[in-house]
Amino acid sequence: MLSAWIDGYVRAWNSNDPDEIGALFTDDALYFTEPYASPWRGRAEIVEGWLAARDEPGDATFEWRPLVEASDLAVVTGTTVYREPPRTYSNLWVIRLDADGRCREFVEWYMKQPSDG
Fold it and tell me: Which residue among 34, 65, 78, 100 is the one 20 to 30 A from 4 at the CA level?
């Protein structure tokens, strides 16, 4: 279930299609762009916030691996590499899924990696 959800997330990240974004989340989901930030609340607000902060399709690659995977909770680490301007982020995502595989709570931590130059 986790792999399918992250595959859908990456597809939505690259398409910025509101229907693909919305399909990932429950009606009352919470999306925290930072652990202590006010969350986007509900599917409509998540889609709106996502599109307001969207990346250009194909501008980033994302690799991930699970740290914890239970029936309703997953913690994953990831690496996001942006092409323009070049930068790399380390990510930690906490994802709470419902029985249908949609996210009901998403919290992300991210840290820019130092550049080599």
Answer: 34
